[in-house]
Amino acid sequence: MHELTVVSNIFKIILQTAKNNNLSKISKINIKVGRQRHLAPDLMEFAFNSVSKNTIAAGASLAIERVDIRMRCSSCGLDFVVGDNTYLCISCGSPKLETISGKDLLIESIEGEL
Amino acid sequence: MEISIMKAVLEENDDRAQEITDLLKKKQILLLNLISSPGSGKTTLLERTVEHFKNRYSIAVIEGDITTARDAERLEKYNIPLVVINTDGACHLNSMSVKKALQKIDLDNLDIIFVENVGNLVCPSEFNIGENAKVAILSTAEGDDKPAKYPLLFRESELMILNKTDLIPYTNFNKKSFYMDLEKINKNLPVIETSCTKNLGLSKWFEWVEQKTIDGGVIK
Fold first, then answer.
1. Given CB 3.0 to 4.6 Å as the disulfide criterion, which of B71, B115, B123, B166 pairs with B91?
2. In what order do the strands lie in the sheet with B82-86?
């Protein structure tokens, strides 16, 4: 249940951003979560509803965009999406891969009112 | 109105982790982050390891434990610096708590710090603590399907220890399917098979730690 730690961090960052921009209400939070991360979106929403209660972010929606696990093969250079937990190049079978995406955990933006 | 942020959620954790890495590099100390389920044998592995290296390296241990100090009590007999981090329910250690724990240890006369993370295959793998390497430990009684079910840890680790191999005859652990899964998830991950209670396979682990001290620049 490290979703709570993650969501607490998100909450801290968005509150600071709202304060810096004089927002009176936060209505939406846009975040990116890579598929390699063991994070359950419904647990994140549950945790967010708990921490945001009675704040300017109460009732805001958490828009979670899942990012595919994408690798580049160091042997043949192919860029591909990892499926079925198989970290082997789909063309040449090499296990020497460089991560392009999939471990993302990023707050892109917030939407709100002044 | 929309306000762009573009900030990593775990930035604070990653920043503190980088500070730990920089500090320990300067002090020439190796930090190994041991991650496994509860009951895989992490503490027994540490007992054997401290015993083996006690005349060779100065070792400290940081114990992540939800509420007790029981793991640390088992290591008290070795008279080494020991710090317990009680996470009060949290399922993982983070770099902020490890940084605080490091302040309680004399870093000027130390070679290796082992961090025994909170017993959990999921959460600890998400949080860097400034380690030189993560080591995944799995015991055979947990089942051969764990790498397939919790791939992140087995992607992030530099070594895997398969412990309690002496128990295989009493479990349905299938070595063939275990290695087949692991080959898909992380073909480059070295696996050392051990039984810490029967003292089997440990010499390969000791060699790995020694090599890591060389790679990590722990030459005083």
1. B123
2. B82-86, B59-65, B112-116, B30-36, B133-139, B159-163, B191-193
